[in-house]
Design a protein that fits this description.
The protein is mostly beta strands and about 450 residues long. The chain contains four helices and 38 strands. It has two domains: about 230 residues, Ribonuclease Inhibitor (Leucine-rich repeat, LRR (right-handed beta-alpha superhelix), Alpha-Beta Horseshoe); about 180 residues, Leucine-rich repeat, LRR (right-handed beta-alpha superhelix). About 5% of the residues lie in helices and about 30% in strands. Strand 2, helix 1 and strand 3 form a beta-alpha-beta unit. The longest helix has 14 residues. Keywords: Leucine-rich repeat, Repeat, Signal. InterPro entries: Leu-rich_rpt (IPR001611), Leu-rich_rpt_typical-subtyp (IPR003591), LRR_dom_sf (IPR032675), LRR_TM_domain-containing (IPR050541).
Length: about 450
Amino acid sequence: MNKACCFSENLEQLSRFSNYTTIGFLNSSLPPLTEQNLQYLARTVNFACRDGILEAFEMPPRFKEVQFHSCQTTNITIKRDRSYELNALAIVDSNITELHKNLGLLTKLERLYVAETLIEHVKMDELSKLVNLKQLYLIDSRIKTISSVSLSLIVMPSLKDLNLSGNQLAMVSLAKWDAPLLEKISLRNNQLQIVMMMPFNFPKLKHLDLTNNPLDCIWRRNLKQAMDERKVELWENAICTYSNQSAVAFINPSLIPMTPKVLQHFNQTVKLACQDGFLPEFHILPQYQVALFHSCQTIGITIDPAVSYKLREFAITGSNITALPKNLKLLTKLTNLHFGKTLIEHIDMDELTGLLHLNELKLYGNRIITLKSFTNSPIHMPKLEAFDVRNNQLSQLIFTSWNATLIGWMELGGNRLQTVLLLPDSFPKLRRIDLKDNPLDCH
């Protein structure tokens, strides 16, 4: 029967625990543990150190499970002239910068878990010697490359679970991997655009997780088709990299908030649209010329006062947004502005001052009760030609302070208007005004 203990005594007292098969150091400051002083633990086969100091450790041949959690363990000695029984090794929260030398000598190892380290480069030549390895976790570190120095085939005949999540991988090539039993691959939270792999080099694959990577859209489309054909469960974010696409449209998407960090993967995009999906938040980038959101539940729009924008067309329809976005008047190059079928009730025309190039203003199908300058300032829109406020709840419109001499048509139908006040010469270009379905005062 296995016994266990957890202690923080001096090494001289190790012999007191010689009959324990499992032993752990908790919050301990230990000198280097060599094979010689570990001989005091005659029956120990499972060893752990947690939240302490154990900088150096010589692996005893008889140990079967060894764990180092936050113990500052950077030096693990594995000797060539030993035959090791180890089948599980975990190293977590360590300042190691590379996997330990001679790791391939642990030929009975089945589980290797390495997390929260400073490792940047992994050479698979040593790991491919672990012929019994079933689970390989190299996660939450700084890994940028995983490669084979010899460029030879990476043979891992027993591997079933591969996890490389939470690193800095921009590209992974699994094309030269021979892992016939591999069932699960997780590459989430990296910087991957593509993963190079042969269509059938993992015949047992059941799960592939690529969540939160800036995937190349064309590659992603082909991958999804291939995984669907193989009935592999594919986990991946809906956003992918359109690095060379000037125009991007999402149809029926479910998207994470479009923050500047996410939108950096659209660095050549100038026209972006979302239709019939879910995109709750969006940061407008300086280079965008067109941004259209139709029935995408978009309610959070960020316009940075410190940025100079090129946006010409901007539309939000089918949204629960209740007010015009803050800093809208900073989009000084806008020519077309549309807000339709929203919950907006009040329009302060002061928020549109500065849009001197606005040609078309459509505010149809909302719940607008008031539309005016809340400071009673003149409304200067010198390029405006079309104005549409159909199907709102307006009971009065006053145009006497408007300076918009190019307006050619107005759509005011479907409101509660009794009067529309305008000066005779306010709109000299006006050719059409629609007032149908309003309870107009006959006088």
